[in-house]
Amino acid sequence: MRARPYDLTSAWHVPAPRQECWDVLGDPRMTWPRWWRGVEALEVRPATGTTGSFARLRFRSPVGYALVLDLVVGAETPPERVRIDVDGDLRGHGDVRLTAPTPGTTRVDIRWHVRTTRTWMNVVGPVARPAFVLAHAAMMRSGERGLRRHLAERSGTAGPPAP
Fold it and tell me: Helix (H) and strand (E) counts for the chain?
């Protein structure tokens, strides 16, 4: 069964300066599991700087399955952009761009270009695609909420709730 391609996009709106968001998202120790519910670190190998950092993470879907992904930071332009190469249950890359639409706020645009590698996902993909896309969107909303909460706790402010 052939791999199924997915082009998944998300936009996070975070009430924190871009540099603060970059410091958390671009942490070479891949500390996402500390603040992103449903993400578990299985192995982390930080590099000097962000480029070359490796993490094997398990993402637990809200609909009952989990994906194990090997993430390697392929390129970065701090604090604006990072490219992440992914292998494992999905194969491809992600592109994350941080912009500051207004002072003290950050927009994080995330685009994943991936293909499924698990046989069961390839088999059910034509029918389950909408569920996979919705599960991805829910997982990404959880990431946005977690990042907002984490940054608010670090700065000592509550901040407005995530949309």
Answer: 3, 7
| Per-residue pLDDT band at 81 (split at 50, 70, 90) | very high
Q: Give the Cα separation of 94 and 86 in Å (integer).
A: 7
Cβ–Cβ under 8 Å, residues 118 and 89:
yes
Nearest to 123 by CA among 134, 114, 132: 132
- Please report, as a single letter, which amino acid is at residue 16: A
Strand-pairing partners, residue 1, are none
Over range 121-143, report the average pLDDT: 96
Question: In the 8-state DSSP scheme, what is residue 157?
Answer: -
Residue keyed to tokens 């604090």: 79
Report pLDDT digits (tens) over 135-157.
999 999 999 999 999 999 988 76
Alpha-carbon gap, residue 121 to 1, rounded angstroms: 9
Pick from 89, 72, 94: which is nearest to 3 by CA?
89
Name the DSSP letter for residue 156: T
Percentage helix, strand, coil, to 5, in the chain?
Answer: 30, 40, 30
Residues 6+ apart with CB under 8 A from 14: 21, 105, 106, 107, 108, 144, 147, 148, 151
Rg value, the chain, Cα: 16
